[in-house]
Specification:
This protein has a domain at about 60-200: Tetracycline Repressor, domain 2 (Orthogonal Bundle), CATH 1.10.357.10. Helix content is about 70%, strand content about 0%. The protein is elongated. By secondary structure, the protein is an all-alpha fold.
Amino acid sequence: MQVKSRRSQDRREALLQSAAKVFLELGYEATSIDAIIGAAGGSKRSIYSEFGNKQGLFSAIVTQSADRALSALVLEEIEGSDLPTTLRAFGRNLMEVYMSPTLIAIYRIAVTEANRFPELVKSFYDQGPGRATSRLSRVLKQAADRGEIRAGDYERAAGHFVAMIRDNLHLQVVLGLRSAPSNKEMHVAVDSAVDLFLHGVGAHEPGKVRQRR
């Protein structure tokens, strides 16, 4: 049974990857279930049975990407970890997902189709950035309860951190101005974001700026 289940998961993974490529190549509106079957194999019956329709298939691609990013914030697994360690793990997961060809494709589709398919874009936000922010806000509240950080607007703070991880690197890749960063570049960017998030830029009060020698 486990072998069969694993094979089923592998087929599902291959289908979602192929569907993401078709969506990117043709755009959401022009993509048909037939085009996806032509690229990934399978049958209409199996796709409709598992995903319901084209929007359900697109939402499954987004959900899969979000699940990967959020794996570093499974509350049971981070019990006992300090906040900097948790933020670095989460940030690296999130950065890797943001820079993956699949999510870059999804992001481009969401921006392009925002006016014509608002429900599609809402699904993208709710399953992706919205879930990441919500989960991180609970982690920040737990850190405040432990005395690691001061109490505050956890949802807003989580949104700031997620945006810092996305950074201009993500925009540059989306616009095709550069290729996805290497693992080393991503780690440096995440470490910088974590340090800035936790400690700020260390600005001095007006009138107390140190004079350089």
